[in-house]
Amino acid sequence: MPGKPRPLSLTPAHVAQVHRAIDDGGPGPGAVLHSDADYDEWVERMIRSHPAPGSPTMLFAYGSLIWRPEIEYVGETVGVARGWHRAFCFRMIRFRGTPEQPGLMMALDRGGQCRGVLYQLPDDGIEGQLGKLFRREFTYKPPNSMPRWIKVETASGPVSALSFVMNRASPLYAGSLSLEAVAEVLACACGHVGSGAEYLLNTVTHLEARGIRDRNLWRLQALVAECIERNNDGARERGSERLTIRRPV
């Protein structure tokens, strides 16, 4: 059983300071979107390439799928994916960022290990489930987060699971960034679905509730809280300076 979650430095009050009402600017010039036929092809490809045909379809969740799965599942357990780690490694110019102030989104990138949640998907209607999932997880061509079968270790032994890994060939791949650099982005960026700070808070909160401590994310949430507080203090100081200048003699 997970122990009592530790209080986070990052709070809903911090997130509220980053949030802004932003209109969806749409895909943007030159963007190529996946069609229904493209998604159907991805579904067929992943079902055909299942490493263990006939066994249950497992989904490895490491980020927002933990706190907003939006698909049906019949069981869940904790597992460890070795050779992959969580990383805010691709730029977002829509959804949780804008072209003027890009955000960063998390994906599985190569190296290290990642502890997350395994969902067992129902056998019935698996094509529709995967189609819904793929439409949520990737929009543009080439996809940023690509579906891939990976090995995940569980208390009952290793299983093959579907997950979404970073496509390093994507033009939006940001590479390996320091936690400090990521924090600066997440403390400011916001798009029409919300901010990066909100995404981080939700992810860390739900990982903690399951007894999963990601050291990098834990450090990152503290850094983001510090950045937001520093940005807010700076805004107050600039406002005070303007008031001082305008004060009549």
TrEMBL record:
Keyword line: Lyase, Transferase
Keyword Lyase appears in the UniProt entry: yes
InterPro entries in alphabetical order: ChaC, GGCT-like, GGCT-like_sf
Record-listed E.C. numbers: 4.3.2.7
Keyword Transferase assigned: yes
MF terms in GO: glutathione specific gamma-glutamylcyclotransferase activity; transferase activity
Name by which UniProt lists this protein: glutathione-specific gamma-glutamylcyclotransferase
BP GO annotations: glutathione catabolic process
Single GO cellular component term: cytoplasm
